[in-house]
Amino acid sequence: MPQLTETQAEDQQLLDKLRPSRIILPVLIGLGVVGFMFWRSYKPGDLAPLANAKPVWLLIMLAVLVARDAGYVYRIRYLTQKVLSWRAALDVIMLWEFSSCVLPSAVGGTAVAPVLLHKEGIPLGKSVAYIMATAMLDNLYYVLAVPLVVLIGGDALYPHEALQGGLVATLRIAFIASYVFVSAYAFLMVYAIFVNPRSVRRLFIRLFSIAGLRRWRNKAYQHGNELVLASAQLRGNGLAYWLRASLSTAFVWTARYLVIGCLISAFIDVTWAEFWLIFGRNLTYKVILLIAITPGGAGIAEGAFPTFFGKFIGTPTMTNFMVLLYRIVTYYLYLVLGAIFLPRWITRIFGKRDAEKVLHS
Q1: Cβ(50)–Cβ(92) below 8 Å
Q2: What's the angle, vertex CA 263, arms to CA 257 and CA 267, rounded to 5?
Q3: Residue 1 lies in a domain
Q4: What is the pLDDT of residue 4?
Q5: Phi then psi for 43, rounded to 5 degrees?
Q6: 287, 178 in Cβ contact below 8 A?
Q7: Which DSSP string corresponds to 153-218?
Q8: How far apart are CA 198 and CA 231, in angstroms?
Q9: Number of domains the chain contains
Q10: Quick count: other Cβ atoms within 10 Å of Cβ 53?
Q11: CB 149 within 8 A of CB 283
Q12: pLDDT tens across 307-356, in order?
């Protein structure tokens, strides 16, 4: 069997990560958890609020979902300085979302995104730089949003009503620790990209030369090189470039965190104070998803949802219905869209033969 070239190996690795058969496991896990939750607590009368659904809020939720994806498409197109066409930008975002759904949450679509951009004709170095820019902006949004929601929600951000004191304390520690880590990493990326990337690379190498961390030294060195490269690619962009990227990032993440509040409001009467508390709890809910090891957080996202949002919904049966609906519009929808966009993209980039090969794998 002839040895694959580096490009062929990269292509094969990408197609393997995106193959449609990866849908099966997260769907089975997610629906299995929701099914168990329904089986354990189902009471037909508890679904009465469905009869009082508010179509306006359902339309708002759909508008938020569309606006979020449109914001992602806009951001990636303008971050890449319009090298991507609108169609290519849409394909990249849909496949990025798809890969986030079928790969573990800790890995997410970020591992696939640079290769997607590279296959769209952007040099690999620039592709890595653009994805690192999105990661930096995403982290900075979290860094700025957390103090705001803590100021608004205070201790109510933690689900005291669903967790015992010890578990609340553990969640609080995890939330604070994740915030400190994300903040440190975000500002380190800002310093590396705009000030001195080589000093950050040296820091990574020294840090991962410590006993117990040496197994990740090569990865740290590679990441340091990527920061140096990203700095060279991005530092010359003007204020308008970064302002547009920052505003679009704030837009898409705010829309992302609004979905649950809109969904609950479509069936349950909530006050504006509760609506914004739901928004804030999304940031503590995210801590659970960050450590999820299943594809797209399947099973873990469903299982944790009632703990954080059940208070605003009411009965366990209705809460479980909301879990299912939430995952349909924010997770299963992207599995379906990915399965639709994937063959079209592969046919456009690689040709019809590879598309058929992936679809039947």
Answers
A1: no
A2: 150
A3: no
A4: 47
A5: -140, 115
A6: yes
A7: HGGGGS-TTTS-HHHHHHHHHHHHHHHHHHHHHHHHHHHHHHT-HHHHHHHHHHHTTSTTTGGGHH
A8: 10
A9: 1
A10: 11
A11: yes
A12: 999 999 988 899 999 999 999 999 999 999 988 898 888 888 877 665 56
Burial of 111 (0-12, 13-18, 19+ CB in 10 A): middle
Tens-digit pLDDT profile for residues 14-33: 777 777 778 888 888 888 99
At residue 80, the 3 state secondary structure works out as coil
Q: Are 21 and 361 in contact (CB under 8 A)?
A: yes
- C-alpha to C-alpha distance for 330 and 319, rounded to whole angstroms: 16
Of residues 80, 16, 84, the one with CA closest to residue 348: 84
| 295 φ, ψ (degrees, to nearest 5) | -60, 120
Range of 323's domain? 6-359
Burial of 276: CB neighbours in 10 Å, binned 0-12, 13-18, 19+: middle
CA distances from 75 to 134, 148, 178, 202, 245 (A): 9, 24, 26, 31, 6
Question: If 0-12 CB within 10 Å is exposed, 13-18 middle and 19+ buried, where does residue 83 land?
Answer: middle
The verdict on residue 157 lying in a domain is yes
Q: How far apart are CA 338 and CA 96, in angstroms?
A: 9
H-type helices in the chain, by residue range? 6-18, 24-41, 55-79, 86-102, 113-119, 124-153, 165-194, 197-207, 217-234, 239-265, 272-290, 300-313, 316-327, 333-349, 352-359
116 falls within a domain: yes
At 259, the amino acid letter reads: V
Provide the whole-model pTM.
0.88
109: part of which helix (H) or strand (E)?
A: none
| CA 127 to chain CA centroid, nearest Å | 18
Confirm whether 287 is domain-assigned.
Answer: yes
- Unique residue bearing structure tokens 């299995």: 32
Query: Are 341 and 275 spatial neighbours (Cβ–Cβ below 8 Å)?
Result: no
pLDDT of residue 270: 92
Token pair, residue 144, equals 């700025």
What residues does 295 pair with on adjacent strands?
104
Give per-residue pLDDT as tens, 193-208. 888 888 888 887 787 7
